[in-house]
Amino acid sequence: MAHSFDDLPPRAALVEIARDFHARGWMAGTAGNLSARADEAHFWITASGLPKGRLQESDFILVRAADAAVIERGRAELAPSAETAIHAALYDLFPDANACLHGHTVSACLAAARTAAKAATLRLPPLEMIKGFDVWEQRPRADLALFANHLDVARVARDVRARFQKSRPRITALLVRDHGPTVWGTSLQQAYNRFEVLEFLLNYLARR
Q1: Residue ranges of the domains in the chain?
Q2: Residue 31 and residue 11 in contact, taking contact as beta carbons nearer than 8 Å
Q3: Domain 5-207: which topology?
Q4: Distance (Å, whole) CA 107 – CA 71
Q5: Phi, psi at residue 147, to the nearest 5°?
Q6: What is the pLDDT of residues 62-100, one digit of tens each?
């Protein structure tokens, strides 16, 4: 077994991450989507409507980052994830991002539900775990970007792009209300670690 997800080819690593997240209740049923850069201009992303606990390497679609156009698919019937537009926006906005992980967790929904309806951010607790996002301050004030959920996912992607173009977030993650968190990182392993860290922090908030 590889010591790091970075030791595996991107799709093999994403398969392992999907099974891990599914087992932990973070990708129930067909929910959630995962992606990783194939090169500077393209990324692999999970196909839509597939059970995440049973993914194979052939269940990913190669997408062009600039416009989310499909370049390659393992089977003709596969369609890209509905959240492809969000992944494409993040890869475009953050050239150093090489992986993007989106799940659906109960703690994330509960934590967001306890914020004001119009709040644009959620203050993360100043726990030791915040260091997983390279926040090295005593009692830090670190905010997670919150976005409204829309049936039209492209609208969410536009909201993400508009906000992050104006102000780069300190925390490499976002949360869509009534939906779930998305975390990105400079590598697959970093993105995985940061998703775990964020889930810990949101679980803490949900239990308070």
Answers
A1: 5-207
A2: no
A3: L-fuculose-1-phosphate Aldolase (3.40.225)
A4: 35
A5: -130, 150
A6: 999 988 899 999 888 999 888 999 999 999 999 999 999
